[in-house]
Amino acid sequence: MAKKKTKKSDKKSDKQLKKSGDLAAEITEKLCVAPGFELSSLDASSTPGYKGDKAEAEELLAASAAELGELQERLYANGRDGDGTSVLLVIQGMDTSGKGGIMRHVVGSVDPQGVSLTSFKAPNAEERKHPFLWRIRKALPKPGMIGVFDRSHYEDVLIARVRNLVPATTWQRRYSQINTFEKSVTDNGTRIIKVMLHIDADEQKARLMERLDRRDKWWKFNPGDIDERELWDAYQEAYQAALDKTSTDSAAWYVVPANRKWYARLAVQQILLQHLRELDQPWPDADFDVEEQKARLEAS
Amino acid sequence: MAKKKTKKSDKKSDKQLKKSGDLAAEITEKLCVAPGFELSSLDASSTPGYKGDKAEAEELLAASAAELGELQERLYANGRDGDGTSVLLVIQGMDTSGKGGIMRHVVGSVDPQGVSLTSFKAPNAEERKHPFLWRIRKALPKPGMIGVFDRSHYEDVLIARVRNLVPATTWQRRYSQINTFEKSVTDNGTRIIKVMLHIDADEQKARLMERLDRRDKWWKFNPGDIDERELWDAYQEAYQAALDKTSTDSAAWYVVPANRKWYARLAVQQILLQHLRELDQPWPDADFDVEEQKARLEAS
Fold first, then answer.
1. Which of A41, A88, B3, B44 is least buried, going by the fewest C-beta atoms within 10 A?
2. Taking every annotated instance into account, which residue ranges of this chain make up the domain Polyphosphate kinase-2-related (chains A, B) (predicted)?
């Protein structure tokens, strides 16, 4: 009755996956923020841990989707009884850094049933009445799910700091509040992966100009984007402070050079893949007698 | 500055898309439930409106993704100011009818930022305290979004009817409550597309057996699935009644023969595509002076 004993993709891409296996570990290690990391020293056009070109990167991205899919399905299968592990992927970056492309090309390659994606905009009236982590807690992934945050509580130490949206004493306190919060989240079984997409100011200018040049991109442009751009250095400082203060053992930051979109997408995929491999969720055992159910089904 | 004036896929698949264009209109028309429709007369292995084979269907599915993606992006772009049109795709079907495959292969091909997917399970304690449409209203898509329901309020006239979960007078009243509700939803700018995936009992048996045969599928199996299967005829009757009573001008039902997964996926994609074409959302105009912003950007 079994129509196919193994998935089509299991065999044919073994070689590619093995290759991409080493790649995942290497990229994950190289991009992980270590003490003393300096954002200003990282070339946004570099491709740490990867020596290939764009075409090969796109092939690797496609070739890794099957393994990512199986690992995601195992995670999901283990979460079905309402307990078990989950993953939270936090994506931060300046305007035009490619967050949307990560959503489309990396997150979008995963079964949507196993993903809960939340885009955090400026807090609304109700959210502003609550502590800054209130809306974040509500969006945490359930067991078995991969939660993805497009922007996050880090905006509360980025734009809130740069724009003086709250008193300095308030945002200063938030770093340790975030660490305590994230510790409690990981203690409850959620693997947190934090990614900053790092572009440089020239690249941003080119990308904003493209939005102005193309009629089908106008809707993505907001004159306020240029106001934000004028605070570039203050934002870089705020990012550096966040990386310094909130890179912890339980919730590491990865800074991904993102001038080359194809590298950034491959890198984020490989980091996610590496964490899912480490979680190594097995297929759950049957909580019924398989032969007995086969006999029941046969008779039905 | 514009790196690419047109999308890679714009040109090369014109011919395929044109072909798939006629296909979308034809499949949509053929599968739409008309007065007098009889579920029991529809061959679940048939492929209405499509004469090709599996390989060609998979090619068409892939080739239509670019057009679907652009139409979805236009919809999304128009919803950004918090008003405008949205789409709601409701997927119903017996266990193993392929709802998950539609989520992975059709919904999964759309940018996850533009999709809100809700899987409705048996109502929890809080949901049971409210009228049956309460949890449905909460999950309706925001402007610009494609909402997808994996099961829906139709369970309240399917399992609720077959299993006598509520008195007969209660579920009998629900058909007109659903019609009133859906009318108000469409009046508020949401295009509703309702799909029933139609398999036959033999196909279900084979698919359940596959879940029992494969260790990596055990987690999807529940002994209760066989109990439900034993009520097959009652479910078919309940589906027929729902189709009879809730196929309206504002919210049509499509019954998709689903013994062949590749046909069902192509058909659901083409129906969604056809509706997005009919909505025909333009790229929004700029609400700023493009040349002025270019000058500001250049100077920044």
1. A41
2. 53-278
* DSSP-derived pairing of the beta strands B253-257 and B190-198: parallel
Q: Which of A150, A213, A288 sits opposite B223 (nearest CB)?
A: A288
Comparing B262 with A5, which gets the higher pLDDT? B262
- Indicate the range of B20-34, B197-211, B213-227 predicted with least confidence: B20-34
Chain B residues with CB inside 8 Å of A260's CB?
A: none
Contact A101, A264 (CB under 8 A): yes
Q: Above pLDDT 70, what percent of chain A?
A: 93
Where is B256: in which H helix or E strand? strand B253-257
What is the chain B residue with the closest CA to A121?
A: B80
Nearest CA in chain B to A118: B113
pLDDT at B21: 60
pLDDT in tens, A230-281: 999 999 999 999 999 999 998 999 999 999 999 999 999 999 999 999 999 9
How many angstroms separate the CA atoms of A100 and A90, rounded?
Answer: 13
Q: Which B positions 12-71 lie with beta carbon below 8 A of chain A?
A: none
Give the residue extent of every domain in chain B: 16-31+40-280
Q: What is the DSSP track for A268-285?
A: HHHHHHHHHHHH-PPPPP
Record: contact A294-B80, CB cut-off 8 A: no
For position A82, what pLDDT does the model report? 78
B299 contact A CB<8A: no
Q: What is the pLDDT of residues B14-24, one digit of tens each?
A: 455 455 569 99
Distance between CA atoms of residues B147 and B103, nearest Å: 12
Length of chain A: 300
The pLDDT value given to residue B59: 97
Q: Give the Cα separation of B41 and B30 in Å (integer).
A: 14
Is the Cβ of B6 closer than 8 Å to some Cβ of chain A? no
Report whether CATH 3.30.9.10 matches the domain B16-31+40-280. no
Taking CB atoms and an 8 Å limit, are A206 and B115 in contact across chains? no
- φ and ψ at B146, to 5 degrees? -100, 110
**Cβ–Cβ gap B294/A212 under 8 Å:** yes
Nearest to A112 among B1, B117, B218 (CB): B117
Asked if B226's CB is within 8 angstroms of A293's CB, the reply is yes
